[in-house]
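Issue: copy button drops trailing tokens. Both records pasted manually instead:
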Amino acid sequence: MKSIFPSLIIIFMISTSCDEGSFSWESNPPVVRLVILNESDLADKAIGDSINLELGLELYNMQNLYFLDFEIHFDHTIFSADSFNYEIFPSFFSTTGDPIVNDNGNGILDEGEEYIDINANGMYDEPVPYPTGSIEIDTRILENGEEEVFFDGGLGIPSPENNGGNAWGTGRVCEFYLSGIFTESLFNINIIQALEYQEDNSVPAEHSINAWDIFTLLIGSPHDPVLRLQQENQSEQNSITITFQIDDAPMIAKLENSIIYDKNLLSYTQYEILDYFDQTNYQVELHSNDNEGEINFEFTHNVINTSVEVTEDSFSQGFGEIIKVTFIVISDEDSTSTITLPKSRISVMGYSLNESNSYPFDLNYWTIEESLEVNF
């Protein structure tokens, strides 16, 4: 086996670059995104159905890269992480190895055949189909005490000094397999570190990812829900009225929320149920604690607590006003106050008509306008 160097190395490098016709990170920033690999399986699924989800982590227009450290975050109350796979071919990190001259078509360097020693290391470097590294399903406790579950991975080219150094352009890094509910939910990519191999075994260069386009993936819903409070025109002196409103919501089976106010300035006096939740189909509960300055609401569809036959028409969805709350102003020291709708105190559930069960919505996708400044 003979090596040919360096006369053919320039030809090989140029032809490799030319294959990436659109590759130019100077004008087009690198892109990182998740793609759904089994979209055809989801085509006949209705919102609320159980699904298996297959995702691919893909890179586009990527600059020289030999190692990527990343996290894939999802709502573990909706999806369970089943498995993952980075032994896929072709992979973004697949390497071609040293080209074989006079190849007999078997793709193997046979005795007597010549090869191009691209990196001049004096030995034949075989193609490497898969990256090296690891992926695990990890957990983390957040400051608010909640637990998050995510895929934690670090993958790259093994022995880059012998395997082409870096990869670039476009390709898939790995695949993820989950099971859960077909409902609106966000999958976020967090790039921890991106390294470029440097020749002569020097310290790898770390890329700044600030200029990369890293996309969030939305699963399952055409809706863009919003929850907000709004102050109404004052009907009486020394009182204020607010309404709790919802925009573009999917089909709701249960909604729980709290309204927090300054007990030194305001005192809860009464509420009125508005048109959004039909009391024929929903039970409404209100628990007020004026000493603590909070009101807790529950709007629950009958199907949650009893075995009843239901149709889609019996569930509230879309736009509307949920409830009206009136406060008495008990102090005139200030002319404004803030009433809050804490996201941490909100829970919303949907219902699958096909599978006759309820499921939680991913509120990371919802817009929650948490503060309202009221005037009196």
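Record 2 (pasted manually too):
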Amino acid sequence: MAVEVDKEAKCGGCGATLDEQYNLPLEARTPCPKCGSLIRALRISISETVEVHDSLRLAHKDSDGKKLAQIQSGDDLHRDTNTWRVLERVIDWSKKWYTETIKDRTTGEVISHTSEDLRAHTGHGAAKPKDTRDS
């Protein structure tokens, strides 16, 4: 968040720029030469940038509730680099196929692309081997 304070003394009555400190107490102020007011105006500007990310995840199931396919599309935070990327992933259990494309969110450059038989897609995410060493 950025906070900006205009430290120029301005008359609160007529807006004239005054030749005094902006933060003088009332008893130390001189009347405004244009309107005679002792009221002072202080301009404070606060701004903040908000970044919005979205992602969509869909599951296609049969009438018994068994997952046939899962689709994920949208922004994804890469935790190692703390950068946002665009992820397109389709896991099709009915066709036993896995496709994933990851692109740089800014340039659109393809960072990685995988399209393979789902049975060959091992050692990733939840399919990674668990660490069996004693802690």
